[in-house]
Amino acid sequence: MTRDEFEDTARSDGYGEPKRVRFDPSSRSETHSHDQVSFVYVLEGEFILNTDDGAPRYDPGETCILPKDVNHAEEAGPDGATILVARK
């Protein structure tokens, strides 16, 4: 998926304006959850989404959807990661 396709899909599916988020190399957030669904697009680097169900890895151009209220920790690969995230 391209960035334009992600933004078009987010808009047509009722998500808010995408926010750009940068993660430092090999960083990992504290475990937390969001009260909205998150639609994620990877711009740069390797993005890892740690949940109780596993830790899938996403590369540039890939997307994922994280349902609301799911405990997770975002992690970046050795070169960091930059994502766009839209929520609804």
Structural description of this entry:
The protein has one helix at 3-12, and strands at residues 19-23, 38-51, 57-58, 63-66, 72-87. The chain is mainly beta and 88 residues long. It has a single domain (3-87), classed as Jelly Rolls (Sandwich). Strands 1, 2, 3, 4 and 5 form a five-stranded antiparallel β-sheet that branches. Strand 2 (38-51) and strand 3 (57-58) form a beta hairpin. The longest helix is centred in the N-terminal third of the chain and has 10 residues, at 3-12. The two termini are 20 Å apart. The model has no long low-confidence stretch (mean pLDDT 97). Residues 20-74 form the Cupin type-2 domain. Pfam families: Cupin_2 (PF07883). Residues 1-35 are annotated as: Disordered. InterPro entries: Cupin_2, RmlC-like_jellyroll, RmlC_Cupin_sf.
Give the number of DSSP strands. 5
Write down the CATH class. Answer: Mainly Beta
User: Please, how many helices?
Assistant: 1
- Assign the CATH superfamily: Jelly Rolls
Report the principal-axis shape: globular
Cα distance spanning the termini: 20 Å
Give the uncertain stretches in residue-range form: none
Radius of gyration: 12 Å
Secondary-structure element sequence? Answer: HEEEEE
Main sheet summary: 5 strands, antiparallel
By helix and strand content, what is the structural category?
Answer: mainly beta
CATH topology: Jelly Rolls
Tally of discrete structural domains: 1
User: Which percent range describes the beta-strand content?
Assistant: over 45%
